[in-house]
């Protein structure tokens, strides 16, 4: 059995699956249920300052997009941070941590961008026995209008400043949660590191209007005839999150900075992808909100079984393994040539590969051969773009097959060059570096 | 209730049992079911289902329209090709047409439920009284259509769209043809055939004259003399004989008549049925008759077919349906002699058959099946009457690829021609295509005529 125990910046948990700071971690009742279901840790829903708590809308808070069979692909929410009294939360956190000493309990915090505010709340949190804190610099709606959440996360200088205060006023590990609503994720990550953060977590939700009600002409969720942008999450955001995690993991300035991966983790496979791209663990929200806490069992067994099958014994064996393989486009090997291949036994003859290629790509797939419906790749036209693979409804029916060096590429009439050559030295590149004489 | 009384009796079941037995075989999908079913469609390119449909309905498009919450647009996609798409959704042997071709069969042996999705969309449109077609400006051309069945209705609708005036001559009391008289009751409940006729005729410009039969009340020559074009779509009115001794005894019925009588009966308890029923035949009519005698309360129903299971015209789906209702299907048996007692049918002597040198022959071995009611369902025949010198082919009307007969300005389609399968959907396609051919002829004729006027 693979060892799934997780040690993230000194915070230990029996597995790398934490629940993200969000509605599922709003109070002891939910968190107790989550721990019973097997979650390794939770990041308690964001605490605000002492005093009257924020209020939430009393109409709908969520909107969604769906795939076939109404499978939820993306969720959008306009809920704010906890709307419960600070001391109620602190009391419950302390009790839950006592009940579940082996699980990770992290406090998410969002208070005004003033030193006194942070200085005031940190000792209160520390007193609960929480394992660490997560700085919520990410929420894109509501709180950002009040100078918090994403309003901080979008200004690297503020991030660095707040992180520095936190490191100054608490011994707890500091995880800085980043907003994706920026142009270059490396800048806030570098700022967090400069401030002394122990880790970053990402991504928070993405600014979005998830859909529009075509009868009322208002965005969803519609509250009294109006809507607002909310935070987008769920399976649809995973690709964006993966890229941002990888960008930080491979940035020389933040290389080695621990990352808690967040964004659309729904299955063990999603989690493994975050881990190999450099995340030390993952946080989950939408999948739990869609299916309930039990899904962690699929994640735990799936990750463990995959690791067993591949001979990976611990999380250290897999974390970051894909990072060296993430590069810039300009370094991709232009001498690597692949062609699509259709497995005729698996083909169900839907024709989608043909029409996708014919209408929108390179006219490289037949529809008829000798008058019979037959889909086959014409290698003299195929540029190896992979579109047919992606539109085919049958898994592994179409695959990309790399041409062996020395064989003929029928499209170009040239033999496949065994040597690596990229754009930086390509003759068509006006910026190409000249080889030394 | 005398459920097991021998002889042919009505009222074998309780009212509740009749109600259950003759309710909709496959009720319309609800909105949620339709969305789930529609989500399975792959939106294939040049889709095999579409190619398999005799009326070439754009199936991927209509299913995508359902999946995007547009059943009305979906219905129009269907009606554009097949104005009787509602009935076809109910009676088409989809398992041998579109659904057999569905690529999901290759993928996982379970096709998209195309027939039921088509019914969903067409039912929504018809129930909301959504009409999609208007007549073009009147052309002043008059066209006679013989027979208000699927072929005639499809032809008339297309002609009316083009602005022609259409008169349909129908021998029976109601329009609809086999949709009204020849379909098992549970396939088209709630008077759907008549509602569909009304829906088709709502376009206007179509007059239906009932009770007028070709060969009895008028001739083809009468029509050609008085109309610019004629479409013949009167179907098959004859029934093949058993060729067995005693087939005229009381208790021997035509399955076609029985099916029609049952369809027309508002109270199914008034339709008498035997205790032990034998149906001779292997097609859809045999299945429809057998299943419905069982549903009327017959205790024992046996279909006897003279060849093997694989030769039956009834689709595997229909055969399974019959089996699920408790009908026994026996093969390699042909009728030899109807046995009477007290002037009533008491049984039938059947002879085993086999194929020798490629020909079906009796083996000489016989057996007797006890029966108080026997149905003939061994095929229908075309009865030529009032057609003059119209050329036939294989005992039906000969047509060319456009539906033109040997007589100028006369077209034909549906079961009375020898082309394609004897299916509702095939008839619709032939009627529609004949109308297009008639339109082309009239348009071509109109222009030079106007030019020299």
List keywords for this structure.
A: 8-stranded parallel β-barrel, 4-stranded antiparallel β-sheet, 13 helices, B: 453 residues, alpha/beta, 5-stranded parallel β-sheet, disordered C terminus
Characterization of the model:
The complex is a heterodimer of chains A (437) and B (453). Chain A is of the alpha/beta class and 437 residues long. In chain A, 29% of the residues lie in helices and 19% in strands. Chain A has an eight-stranded parallel β-barrel with strand order 3-4-7-8-9-10-15-16, surrounded by seven helices. A four-stranded antiparallel β-sheet of chain A has the order 5-6-14-11, with no helix packed on it. A two-stranded antiparallel ribbon of chain A has the order 1-2. In chain A, helix 6 links the parallel strand 9 and strand 10 (199-202). The N and C termini of chain A lie far apart (56 Å). Chain B is of the alpha/beta class and 453 residues long. In chain B, the strands form five sheets. Chain B has a five-stranded parallel β-sheet with strand order 3-2-1-4-17, sandwiched between helices. In chain B, strands 6-13-7-8-9 form a five-stranded parallel β-sheet. The relative contact order of chain B is 0.14. Residues 448-453 of chain B have low confidence and may be disordered. The A-B interface holds A 68-70, 348-352, 354-355, 367, 373, 393-394 and B 35-36, 39-40, 42-48, 103-104, 106-107.
Summed over residues and divided by their number, the pLDDT of chain A gives a mean of: 96
Oligomer: heterodimer
Query: How many DSSP E strands of chain B?
Result: 17
Shape of chain A: globular
Bin the helical content of chain B.
25-40%
Structural class of chain A: alpha/beta
What is the helical fraction of chain A, as a range of percent?
A: 25-40%
N-C termini distance of chain A: 56 Å
> What value does the Rg of chain B take, in angstroms?
23 Å
Low-confidence stretches of chain B are: 448-453
Low-confidence stretches of chain A: none
Alpha plus pi helix count of chain B: 17
**Helix-strand category of chain B:** alpha/beta
Strand order of the largest sheet of chain A: 3-4-7-8-9-10-15-16
- Biggest sheet of chain B, strands in spatial order? 3-2-1-4-17
Radius of gyration of chain A: 25 Å
- Give the strand content of chain B: 15-25%
Work out the number of β strands of chain A: 22
> Strand content of the residues of chain A, in percent?
15-25%
